[in-house]
Amino acid sequence: MVEMYQKMLEIRYFEEKVFELYGQNLVPGTIHLYAGQEAVAVGVCANLRKDDYITSTHRGHGHCIAKGGQLGKIMAEILGKKTGYCKGKGGSMHIADFSLGMLGATAVVGAGIPIAAGAGLSIKLRGTSQVVACFFGEGASNQGTFHEGINVASVWTLPVVFVCENNLYAMGTRQSRVMAVENVADRAVAYGIPGAVVDGNDVIAVYEAAHEAVKRAREGKGPTLIECKTYRHKGHSRVDPATYRPKEEVEEWLKKDPIPRFKKKLLEQKVLTETVANKIEKDAIAAVEGAVKFALESPYPAPEEALEDVYA
Amino acid sequence: MRQITIREALREALREEMLRDKTVFILGEDVGQYWHGAFGVTKGLAEEFGDERVRDTPISESAIIGTATGAAITGMRPVAEIMFGDLSALAMDQIANQAAKLRYMFGGQTKVPLVIRMPFGAGVNIAAHHSQSLEAWFMHAPGLWVAVASTPYDAKGLLKTAIRGDNPVMFFEHKLLYPVKGAVPEEEFTVPFGVAEVKREGEDVTIVATLYMVHKALAAAEELAKQGISAEVVDPRTLVPLDKQAIINSVKKTGRLVIVTEDCKTAGVSAEIAAIVAEEALDYLDAPIRRVAEPDTPIPFSPPLEQFVLPNEKSIVKAVREIVS
Asked: Model-level pTM greater than 0.80?
């Protein structure tokens, strides 16, 4: 539990720092911050073994951190440095760590769903007890790949947990404008698999739902679709002030911030003391500062490295 | 040496690689025991290796390539079949944005040992959705290899190389070539990528042709010989990587170049080859380059219409005669 709290804080501080560095013109390109959704990645990944797989999205920093990724290598990648996870070839939207089963973030919405199913097929054919957690947003659930990928995962009984992070908005498009159903999880019926709606800002709720889904997958009983209702604190990307979201709605969701909520619970249950909490916070800040220092001090790749890694 | 068809050669390659390596598996629409693929290439394989390793899929091209890609980056060597090359459009994101780019985007952390077999090509009156030649689409997606076998020997050897390799390969199988027979040794062999083959030697003109057009070019060369023109026919065998040097060497020898492909002329395979020769061997050319290709239309249905747009022996001879006096 304390470990989950620690990871959530790391993600939060990490994203705040990325936001700050972007403002200082140190981050090339764009960024999609995970702040506000930490309970989802952390609650799911707390159920995974090191050899389990995850697939991620353009909003993926949190997934990699939750799977055990190194903050320094993530930050260095975001800054386009040679020491980054992808040697500066991927950036913020394509973080991967294959040594941790983090099969990478794809920035095409919904594209990771069949790939996750394929990792599940690989597990089944190799006969191991691994599982795959596949993260995507509610916007991705309107892609054909959602239908195709979950359908094969179901019909082939693949060990995949499909985790929909429903943050209500696909860029500026509110879910209700593009979907006739309220819950993405209701679509599970179409594939004959369990679908669960959970409070995505309650890490324990996410953990428990994922626990059941991972257990089911590991036992060879097939996939589950978990929908986590959550909210991103910032806009879609760095340039987006998110004015399309009503002020009251934003305030309402900020009150449901997963991190203070979890901290309160841990303090109430005496799992955590203020002293320990303070130390965890300080350590998380220090870890992020260390990552920033590492990334800033790292060199850029040599320009001609652009020609490498096209083919194996 | 024994003579077998391209269909049999491909089947042998699949079977031998599945016996050799248990991570090799096949997936696609109706590739299993109930149909054996639309062109019968996988006949007997589901019976021998089981339904798990010769896997029928739903009609979900994105899922076929997406799951194959996911399996490829986690230790398997999938061979996916897209029933008709035209349908690769349905899986284009998974092919061109995912399979092709994952290795690069992730800084070389992964490899994607995936083969995508695609029956394709015109000439059997099945119109615009089942007849296209789309090699150029995939030549334009760095990260993919593109194989274009024209004989049973090349088909078997290239498919084995494709399956054993660590890059995603688009493997083009012209549907009119499946019954074509040729010599294939019983013994184990592979054909390397990026090595063209001179299918017929000649002195007066180089004809670079691919796939079914290699056979048309060979027939044209026969006719040209009767007219006193000695044509050399070069088959690149793979378009990515492309054996530029073999093409340039032949042009240096003959001083004239005709390129024959079944795909659309504009921005097509022939355009790329012409550009390479113009850039790197212009001084050796004694005449303008000629291209014989599909005239930028969808493939029509009615036999006279379809035959009109496809390159043939006559149009190749005509193109050669235009630049060889």
From this structure: yes
